[in-house]
Design a protein that fits this description.
- With 263 residues, the protein is of the alpha/beta class.
- The protein contains 10 helices and 10 strands.
- The chain has helices spanning 5-15, 63-70, 95-101, 117-127, 133-146, 162-174, 192-207, 219-225, 243-248, 253-262, and strands at residues 25-34, 37-47, 52-56, 78-83, 86-87, 102-105, 180-184, 212-215, 228-233, 236-242.
- The strands form 2 sheets. The chain has a 6-stranded mixed sheet with strand order 6-7-8-3-9-10, with helices on both faces. A 4-stranded antiparallel sheet has the order 2-1-4-5, covered by helices on one side.
- Helix 7 (192-207) links the parallel strand 7 and strand 8.
- The longest helix has 16 residues, at 192-207.
- The radius of gyration is 20 Å and the shape is globular.
- The structure holds adenosine-5'-diphosphate and magnesium ion.
- Adenosine-5'-diphosphate is lined by residues 34, 39, 57, 59-65.
- Adenosine-5'-diphosphate binds at residues 34, 39, 57, 59-65.
- One of its GO terms (molecular function) is ATP binding.
- It is found in: Cell membrane.
- InterPro entries: AAA+_ATPase, ABC_ATPase_HisP-typ, ABC_transporter-like_ATP-bd, ABC_transporter-like_CS, MetN_ABC_transporter-like, P-loop_NTPase.
- Keywords: Amino-acid transport, ATP-binding, Cell membrane, Membrane, Nucleotide-binding, Transport.
Length: 263
């Protein structure tokens, strides 16, 4: 009996059942330098589909840099990152296309100030995904409703509070039907009374099964929805542990010191 390609493939998968479900985000041995300064040191972690991973650590530890490497906003010199199996560092990878599928929400809302809220939501849907005006409007309004901003659809970003603008930024990212969402300190520029309205949207998203990588110091959020916590210090992933284990008994002195300062 000759082994055709089909037989070979089924044999390979039978031998590697664990490989069937590949992680949504896989970061392997990633290092990055700014000139002579190494800012990421052999970072390895992964985010399974539907998982929420919180990244925390002191200021300057490399959290933003790490999360930006995931959708190709920051190049890296060593290691490997894949998103849904697509190699981010491969020069052949269509980065704009990848970025369209990985939502990113920053500390500063980065809405287009000269465009109305609904126009902010329509723009990339039409330009990048080729959706019609009607389709993009319907999707935009649905998502604005979901984050509680539908009544402000015709306003400009400057007419909304910081918390409202950040919820719009989340809705705008979701309008692209992302396969994963990256958040970089989405609440740290907000007045305290607005933090929860943004976290509530993120908690709902997590509970619906969105794959999320979240840089935050909101440890209440981490306890509530994170599957794992990654702790960084000086460019290294010092700890990568299930949430309960991380808060219950952080292994490293550096994580203990960090937690004792912020909790
Ligand atoms: P975090 O988000 O944890 O506060 P960052 O990822 O922003 O940390 O920064 C990690 C390190 O990289 C810091 O030492 C920072 O000063 C340095 N860094 C960040 N961006 C640049 C840049 N564009 N050029 C040079 N160094 C940078
Ligand atoms: Mg940062």
């Amino acid at each position: 009996k000759t082994a055709g390609p089909e037989t070979a493939a089924s044999t390979a998968s039978a031998l590697q059942p664990a490989k069937a479900a590949r992680p949504m985000i896989e970061i392997e041995d990633v290092s990055k330098w700014y000139g002579p300064i190494q800012v990421l040191k052999n970072c390895t972690t992964r985010v399974e589909t539907g998982e929420v991973v919180v990244v925390c650590g002191p200021s300057g530890s490399g959290k933003s840099t790490l999360i930006k490497t995931v959708n190709g906003l920051e190049p890296f010199q060593q290691g490997r990152i894949t998103v849904d199996g697509i190699a981010v560092g491969d020069p052949k990878t269509d980065l704009p296309k990848l970025r369209a599928r990985v939502g990113m929400v920053f500390q500063h809302f980065e809405l287009f100030p000269h465009l109305r809220i609904i126009e902010n939501l329509r723009l990339a849907q039409m330009k990048v995904l080729g959706r019609s005006f009607e389709e993009a409007t319907a999707k935009g309004l649905k998502l604005l409703d979901r984050v509680g901003i539908k009544m402000h659809a015709d306003k400009y970003p400057g007419q909304l509070s910081g918390g409202q603008q950040q919820r719009v930024a989340i809705a705008r990212a979701l309008a692209m039907d992302p396969i994963a969402m990256l958040f970089d300190e989405p609440t740290s520029a907000l007045d305290p009374e607005m933090i929860n309205e943004v976290l509530d949207v993120m908690v709902a998203l997590a509970k619906e099964g969105m794959t999320m990588m979240v840089v935050t110091h909101e440890m209440g959020f981490a306890r509530k929805v994170a599957n794992r916590v990654v702790f960084m210090d000086a460019g290294e992933i010092v700890e990568d542990a299930p949430t309960d284990a991380f808060f219950g008994s952080p292994r490293s002195e550096r994580a203990q010191a960090f937690l004792s300062k912020i909790l």
